[in-house]
Amino acid sequence: MPRGGELRLGRSGSWAPEAAAILADEETVSARHATVVHTAEGAAWVTEVAQGATNGTRVNDRVLVPDRPVRLRNGDRVELGPRAGFVVRGIEAEPTDPPT
Length: 100
Description:
Elements: E1 5-9, H1 17-23, E2 34-38, E3 44-48, E4 57-59, E5 62-63, E6 70-72, E7 77-80, E8 84-87
Antiparallel strand pairs: 1-2, 2-3, 3-6, 4-5, 4-7, 7-8
């Protein structure tokens, strides 16, 4: 994902067109589940969508609070519900401020 980009994660083809093709059959992933932002400075943040992720989102077993960004680091495991997830790779910088 390029710097300055945002990726929506969910099963909705209109809301998350890039991820929906992969997640469409994952019943435990919500239509509008979470977003990942890769800032221009090189940090990455994941945010669970408020009133979206029925089965929750976790980073390294930490349950996310909707609408509160969590900074991602290399090697972090992000789980969308109990059966779908990914490991973070390629983070270069470690700024501390969440995206606005």
